[in-house]
Amino acid sequence: MQLQLEYFLLLAAALFCIGIYGLITSRNAVRVLMSIELLLNAVNLNLMGFSNFLDPDTIRGQVFTVFVITVAAAEAAVGLAIILAIYRNRETIDMEQFNLLKW
Amino acid sequence: MDFSSNIATQLNAGAILPEGIVVVTILLVLICDLIVGKSSARWLPYVAIAGLLASVAALWLKWDATESLAFLQGFNGDDLSIAFRGIVALSATVTILMSVRYVEQSGTSLAEFIAILLAATLGGMFLSGANDLVMIFVALETLSISSYLLTGYTKRDPRSNEAALKYLLIGAASSAIFLYGVSLLYGLSGGQTNLDAIATALANGDGGESLGLAIALVFAIAGISFKISAVPFHQWTPDVYEGSPTPVVAFLSVGSKAAGFALAIRLLVTAFGAVSEEWHFIFTALAILSMILGNVVALAQTSMKRMLAYSSIGQAGFVMIGFIAGTDAGYSSMIFYLLIYLFMNLGAFTCVILFSLQTGTDQISDYSGLYQKDPLLTLALSICLLSLGGIPPFAGFFGKIYLFWSGWQAGLYGLVLLGLVTSVVSIYYYIRVVKMMVVKEPQEMSETVENYPEVRWSLPGMRPLQVGIVVSLVATTLAGILSNPLFTFANNSVINSPVLQSAKLTQPIAKAGISETSDRPIVQ
Amino acid sequence: MLSVLLLVPIIGAAIVAFLPMGESKRLRQFTAIIATLVFAWIVYLLTQFDLSNSGFQFSEYLSWVQPIGLSYSLGVDGLSMPLLALNGLLTWIAIYSSRGDIERPRLYYSLILLVNAGVSGALMAQNLLLFVIFYELELIPFYLLIGIWGGKKRGYAATKFLLYTAVSGLLVLAAFLGLAFLSATPNFDYNSITTEGLGLTTQLVLLTLLLVGFGIKIPLVPLHTWMPDAYVESSPSTAILLGGVLAKLGTYGLVRFGLQLFPETWSLVAPGLAAIGTVSVVYGAMAAIAQKDIKRMVAYSSIGHMGYILVAAAAGTELSVLGAVAQMVSHGLILALLFYLVGIVEQKAGTRELDVLNGLMNPIRGLPLTSALLIMAGMGSAGIPGLVGFAAEFIVFQGSFTTFPIPVLVCIIASGLTAVYFVILLNRTCFGKLDNETAYYPKVLLTERIPAFVLTVTILFLGLQPNWMIRWIKPYTTSVAVNPTGLQIAQVETQK
After folding, report:
1. What span, in angstroms and rounded, lies between the C-alpha atoms of B274 and B271?
2. Which residues of B touch A9 (CB under 8 A)?
3. Tens-place pLDDT, residues C378-397
């Protein structure tokens, strides 16, 4: 039995929703960062799925995925660096505590 | 031999010469800093400025290049992109001018700051010309990640940390959402990443995928609106503007925003040409919300930086009028306004930096009575703010008139009237600052101003600041009166860009009024 | 030719603002010289003015910003020429009457010169956008003039002025944008713009925008609330410019852009305008009677006198338009004199309260000459024959009567009310017994009297020889009148 494209898309959409949920509810900054990684991975799944089913010759989607993974790593590195800096100053990474600037 | 020459023409690497110069400048700054050490901070900024100006000069040489597509159509160096790349590079130049003293006083390394800023500029410039989804994504992230770093650059300041964290989390989330939209677009077009190819594929495809296209559109617009900080995607703006180092704010409010508008034009007009009615509608809503909320909330601000943050949201709303108009005049009015906005907004930020360097505060009430102590600063800040408010004969008035004029031509009466009304509101809060500085009596002077030290231009890093103030003052005053060359430049950059011209012919345009008027020559 | 009127004051303002000129008095001398030069040039232009030509003269044209249809085109005709002269004269008076020891003199004098250039520019502009630029240009200088050198509540008054005037500019701009784009030729050149071919509703909407916009500036009655505060809180010289010159831009705009660009629709809205004008006249007179502060009284009297202009403009006959222009000039002169004298009284007596002041006529201890001139100004304002106010009002009434008999009758009665409050004013301040406590006011110096003398002589001369004012206006009015005989509107009304 062959897997349908829809399954990949549904899985990606589910992952995306989980990511969004985590983004909204997490209080810990690292968890927020992890949720963003989930979002990006949902995108990767999408791209890979499309690439396999629609564009198997030029595989642009797979190339795109490689770029996304690279950039996501850079983003996570910068994010963790900033969280580290803020932890040194404030001794907390609880999002609720970051209230020097009013939202 | 044949193969390599074929590849060479396809790559057309000359199109990214300006970006190449910026890359070389980044490397130069980093290596010089490594070899020479701390003493290099005296001349490194000038190296960076020279590099950026050389890049602008290279852009000038690329004007009207016969072959604009480069890198297998991944990058489009047409005149439209040149205009936006020029705006980004110029805003970085002025930002460096104003940051030398500021960064030095904050006790952090100047060379790294400049290198990161240049990287952000590079991202912005690539974004302005990107013609391929992968290219757009990489350029966007180069710009964003550098901006996160810049925002948190004063790493011992908890406010700066907090601003950086907020910016990073919201920014990363919005670019992930944007990317999800892009991945859908890739699938809907049947595996194309080139914008033109996507447009063709979508135009040829059947209408059954319109729901998917709508979702892709909404997600893409969310990402773009974050960059141009359009309401309701603006929540990060005031916090980030208040917390981060002021030169960074200046760059974010002009350079980053201009790149966002370039992305909006290219992505929406080309790839989403099939659903132009929908995105016109969404952007109309965004423009209305931005103009109202930005200008009204700015009334209540007590901090200068927050006030400028909300004002920049409102200004983005004005610029969107030109975008929604969708005519030649509309796009060129956007470019014209962004060019003018560059000088007046950066001028205002330079003045805010000078004031905070002198006094260490940026509360509006602390400006009271400044006229007595520092007439130059008062004059420059007043003129920049009045120009932002659209008071003639300063440049901002001409920019706004052009935006409104093109909007009116395109039949956007409601938007233009709203723009007029909100610009009256904006006059009120801009003039509040002018009133603080100029109208207050000597005895009403704030304590901060009482202790205002004499400005010593001879201190290291002050000279560039002075140059920044004077340049933006002169540009703001004269760019309106002598605006003909700028108008011609903005017009040509739109007319010579095949992307917009072809899009106009193929796409069904939302309002009946637009299609008649867009073909009418603007010049009488 | 006309650019001189812009360049000289602007360059003068730049010199005053940026070059070190020493003390306040020298600055005033220098500024006065600039103003004299400007005024002399206007007089020269008056002599060169071709009285047989009803169109624009001394025209200048420079293409400026083509993409938005903005060009630098200037020209004057019988409507703008007398107002230009008024502007030149009153600027000179305002500079001359400023106090020698004023604070921040450089900013002050450069702002006044900028105001002069702005008003001249607005009066000469032959391009709608150019007009808007000059019209809005007034905003900030006046805001600062009121806000810095005003009275106690100056901050409030200045902000109110700013908001109202900004809205006024916005409405005018919106109307012009609509006008330029909806009419057949989408540019802003005054001479090529017509409203022909526009639908009636569109015309009415645009005209309403213009009327409300200029109505704020004039100010007309429901839109006038900024005005008493602004006039009262500003210093006498600012008040002279504000009431004598700036308000004229409103009536000028009304005639130039309302009456001339919308000749068809004008007769439709004219009855309403006449009604509003009449209400302004009556309201101004009533409110002035109720005032206890002489400056506020003068301010309200101004509302009434601007109402006559509106009635005359609404009638739109040859004679009434002539009267409207004449009334603009006469009102500018008389209001300036009144504000100037009230300023002197306030400065010498230390109060503006009607209940406190009295007996100023006292030949030894009071201010005899000032009160004599005040009586003269009051008579002029009340329309006593022999002074310019009478001449202008008479033309207004005669010209408008055939079209709007009832409003004109009401106005004539209200001009009687003018006499009432001036009698109250003069009776309380000038006559009566001078209190011993407040005795011995400081003497009015000869230099302080000069502006008053100049204004009085002008008022008297133009009153005895109104032809000298009217000859410049006359050729213009023959070309503009929308209903030459005054019968047209009557016909429209009977048809309904």
Report:
1. 8
2. 187
3. 888 888 888 888 989 999 99
Spatial CA neighbour of B41 closest among B118, B111, B101? B111
Q: Is it the case that chain C and chain A have 3 or more CB pairs lying under 8 Å apart?
A: no
Amino acid at B520: R
* C-alpha span between A82 and A95 (Å, rounded): 13
| Contact state of A60 with B186 under an 8 Å Cβ cutoff | yes
In this structure, are residues C426 and C382 in contact, taking their beta carbons and an 8 Å threshold? Answer: no
Please state the pTM of the whole predicted model. 0.91
C-alpha A52/C-alpha B435 separation (Å) is 64
Residues forming beta bridges with residue C61, ordered by sequence position: C73
- Which chains have 3+ CB pairs within 8 A of B? A, C
User: Residue B504's pLDDT band (boundaries 50, 70, 90)?
Assistant: low
- pLDDT greater than 70 at residue C484: no
CA C322-C327-C329 angle, to 5 degrees, is: 105
Nearest CA in chain B to C161: B428
- Largest interatomic CA distance in chain B: 81
**Letter for the amino acid at C29?**
Q
Counting Cα atoms < 13 Å in the Cβ hemisphere of B375 gives: 6
Of C134, C147, C186, Cβ closest to residue B524 = C186
Nearest residue in A to B157, CA atom: A89
Q: How many CA atoms lie within 13 A of A68 on its CB side?
A: 30
Contact B89, B125 (CB under 8 A): yes
Half-sphere exposure of B232 (CA within 13 A, CB side): 2
Q: Are residues B38 and B459 in contact, defined by beta-carbon separation less than 8 angstroms?
A: no
Q: In what helix (H) or strand (E) does residue B176 lie, and over which residues does it extend?
A: helix B158-188
> CB of C211 within 8 A of CB of C254?
yes
Decide: B203 and B276 in contact? Cβ < 8 Å: no
Q: Which residues of B touch C175 (CB under 8 A)?
A: none
B499, B504, B506, B510 alpha-carbon torsion, rounded to 10°: 130
Q: Return the structure tokens found at C434.
A: 């001078």
If you average pLDDT over residues B470-477, what whole number do you get? 93
Distance (Å, rounded) from C-alpha C250 to C-alpha C239?
16
Residues C234 and C226: beta-carbon distance below 8 Å? no
- Which residues make beta-bridge pairs with C62? C72
Q: 């709203």: which residue's tokens?
A: B418
Has residue B115 got a pLDDT over 70? Answer: yes
Find chain A residues with C-beta within 8 A of B144's C-beta: 75
Pick the closest to residue B180 from A54, A3, A17, A29 (CA basis). A17
CA angle at C23 for the pair C18 and C26, rounded to the nearest 5°: 85
The residue with tokens 């010469």 is: B17
Which residues of chain A make contact with B145, given a CB cutoff of 8 A?
71, 74-75, 78
CA angle C204, C208, C212 (to 5 degrees): 175
**How far apart are alpha carbons B127 and B121 in whole angstroms?**
10
Between CA B393 and CA B397 the distance in angstroms is 7
Q: Which position has the higher pLDDT, C104 or C239?
A: C239
Per the CB < 8 Å rule, is C155 touching B427?
A: no
Q: Phi first, then psi: what are they for B154, rounded to 5°?
A: -80, 85
Cβ distance B137 to A68 less than 8 Å, yes or no, reads yes
Q: What is the pLDDT of residue C487?
A: 45
CB neighbours (10 Å) of residue B195? 27
Cis-peptide, bond into residue B393, ω within 30° of zero: yes
In chain B, domain spans: 7-517
CA distance A21 to B103: 39
Asked casually if ipTM beats, i.e. exceeds, 0.85, the reply is: yes
- The CA distance from C412 to the nearest CA of chain B, in Å, is 39
C186 neighbourhood in chain B, CB within 8 Å? 409, 520, 524
CA triplet B60, B62, B68: central angle to 5 degrees?
145
